[in-house]
Design goal:
Layout (H helix, E strand, L loop, with lengths): L2 H6 L6 H9 L3 H37 L6 H20 L1
Length: 90
């Protein structure tokens, strides 16, 4: 839609209609922004689960006398990698 055509319309009064009115010209960017927010929020929740898994793996490894620490290392490495991805997403 042309810029002059946008100016000929009245501005919508409701927030959702206004957001649609403004973003329909830049639909690709708006879709990308929504996807980035969804991925970022999902990674936030994954961080909580990974932290729980790190703590559980460390507790289990300590109970076993640290004979097998591979699970602890796996989740211990995944946590900062996921954190870095999450911070770069925002």
């Amino acid at each position: 839609m042309e810029h002059s055509a946008l100016l000929s319309h009245r501005l919508p009064r409701s927030p959702f209609k206004f957001a649609w009115f403004v973003s329909r010209v830049h639909g690709g960017w708006a879709t990308g922004a929504i996807i980035a927010v969804l991925v970022g929020e999902s990674l936030d929740q994954v961080l909580v689960v990974l932290l729980k898994l790190v703590i559980d793996a460390a507790t289990t490894a300590a109970e076993m006398g640290f004979q097998d620490t591979s699970t602890m290392w796996l989740f211990g490495i995944l946590f900062p990698v996921t954190y870095l991805l999450n911070e770069n997403m925002w």
